[in-house]
Amino acid sequence: MAEAQYDFGLATHLDADALGEPGHRTFRLLVRSGSSSALLWIEKQQLIALGLAIEQVLAQVAPQEAQRGEFTLSTGPISDFPLNPQVEFRVGQLQLGHDAVNQQFQLIVGESEDEEREARQPRLTVRTRYRLANRLSKQIAALAAAGRPRCPLCGEPLGPEPHHCALSNGHVH
């Protein structure tokens, strides 16, 4: 794999955030390491997969950390994040590495292929300690849970418009 354009080293802050109303939200990762900052726009499913991967690895290698504390989702923007981060792009590829010796995760982020940069070349790497990764995982779970409620029969998101559930009218595929 090619070397990343931005190596943030060990993260001091790593947060997940959503902007907008449920059903029309945009998701992002906010990364800080020292004086460096990055704003990474990410799809909801990518974010959920990242949170689950962190949770699964922590449950295996550090079960006491995985069980540590509840997380309450804060409302409103993350106030101390810089208005103009040094790095900002849409996430295309996301890899999670694990370093058991140093008790850290490494996040390797590639830009979306629809951007003008070389596809598949990592743009940013950042490492994070278990505690910060656990906090991120809980933050992601809270963001996902704060979305639209789901139909108990088919699992599709419910919105203000009428819901036409295939399972409630006998038309199961």
The helicity comes to 10-25%
CA(first)-CA(last) distance: 43 Å
Count of separate DSSP helical elements: 3
Number of domains: 1
Q: Give the SSE order as H and E letters.
A: EEEEHHEEEH
Instruction: Report the β-strand fraction as a percent range.
Output: 25-35%
Major sheet summary line: 7 strands, mixed
Low-confidence stretches: none
> What gross morphology would you assign?
globular
- Residue-averaged pLDDT: 82
Characterization of this structure:
- This protein is α/β, with parallel strands linked by helices.
- It has one domain.
- The protein is 22% helix and 32% strand.
- The protein contains 3 helices and 7 strands, in the order ββββααβββα.
- Strands 1-7-6-5-4-3-2 form a 7-stranded mixed sheet.
- A hairpin with a 6-residue loop joins β2 (13-19) and β3 (26-33).
- The model has no long low-confidence stretch (mean pLDDT 82).
